[in-house]
């Protein structure tokens, strides 16, 4: 009866045994479990590569690993950077990135230039699976410790920095791209400093504003109206190396009620430069205004007839504070009428009507050479009378002044040829001396006189064309 009861209890307990029961059933032995060994933890990359490297305040050392690191294995110094000059450990902080497979070290204050550093990894580092770090080098793995010889090259500011009033509470700064040995201009950032004029501008402290990469202008806002400020910039490369500061500029925010135009006497002189036949240079005395003189701009208006300037569209606007400027894009050997007006930073423009005329310089390429050589497409009627109009080529055609044996030994095919003496020993052109220039002497003679040019013509070239050639000779006969 007791045996039957034990069997029943066994069935009910599904394999458990009551005290005092005996059975021939034995529990099965547990099978041994074989664990796969964890993959070794390897350092597979380091940046920057060892050797001579540029450093700065933002320098990072990045070590990549073959597996995710166990954060608990980092300790206080997972990466140790030691100066080989002072043998001091470089203070800094380390952090995991990239799903814990990248360890980044950032030095406090950056690594110093002109030094040597050794970089070691903590032997306590292990992977999340528990594998310890193996640092023996392999053909595709970096060797630790890593050594760096360091240098730093700061960006260089180029050109000028310009400041102007934007509003009663803002000033605008703009500048040219800085240059750097490694960081492209599109990645350089700029520190902008501003302080009221009576406050020292400390260019070693953090800036008031920092531009986005590659931006070369900034509006400094939240300023006081009618207040003068001191401003400067520094360029910074992607390692944090900073350029020398720019020169300190001053600029004044607009007055809240500035509606008065500058008091301006107008343009004082307009001059031509024989080297630049397409431009005139206007000059003036500074205007007077609530805006400082160094912030005033000047608009130049140009017309081909007196009193016909379009004051809605200036031909040129000066830089702030300029007292002269070149006005380009003008036709050569042409009289122009120029009016200059002053503009303050509030946009108020004076309304003076002082007009000065000047003639642009005559151009060899446009005022002389086409008249003498008549290249294809030239309107011969502009200078050559109908009775004297030659074939294409003008004086420089095959039967006259060109080729291996030009008439009278005088050739007009190149600029230099205009200055070579003919068989008579006389030169076609003598700079600054029209009376000695046979090109003019022979073409200005009256028809019928001996040696008159063009040969066989019934009339001389038009006087206005000969006058242009004479002006070109008087101004130095340049190849302009």
Give a brief outline of the structure.
With 480 residues, the chain is mainly beta.
Task: Explain what this protein looks like in three dimensions.
Helices cover 9% and strands 27% of the residues. It is mainly beta and 480 residues long. It has 4 domains: 111 residues, Immunoglobulin-like; 92 residues, Immunoglobulins (Immunoglobulin-like); 93 residues, Immunoglobulins (Immunoglobulin-like, Sandwich), CATH 2.60.40.10; 111 residues, no CATH class. α2 crosses α4. The longest helix is centred in the N-terminal third of the chain and has 12 residues. The N terminus is likely disordered.
- CATH architecture of the largest domain, by name, is Sandwich
- State the separation between the terminal residues, measured CA to CA: 134 Å
What is the makeup of the main sheet?
5 strands, mixed
Got a strand count?
A: 23
The name CATH uses for the topology of the largest domain is Immunoglobulin-like
- CA radius of gyration is 43 Å
Q: What would the average pLDDT be, to the nearest integer?
A: 87
Tell me the count of domains: 4
CATH class of the largest domain: Mainly Beta
Regions with little confidence, pLDDT below 50 for 5+ residues: 1-35
- Provide a count of the helices: 4
Quick one: overall form?
elongated
Content of β-strand: 25-35%
Helix/sheet category: mainly beta
Question: Notable features of this structure?
Answer:
480 residues, mainly beta, Immunoglobulin-like, 4 domains, 5-stranded mixed beta sheet, 4-stranded mixed beta sheet, elongated, disordered N terminus
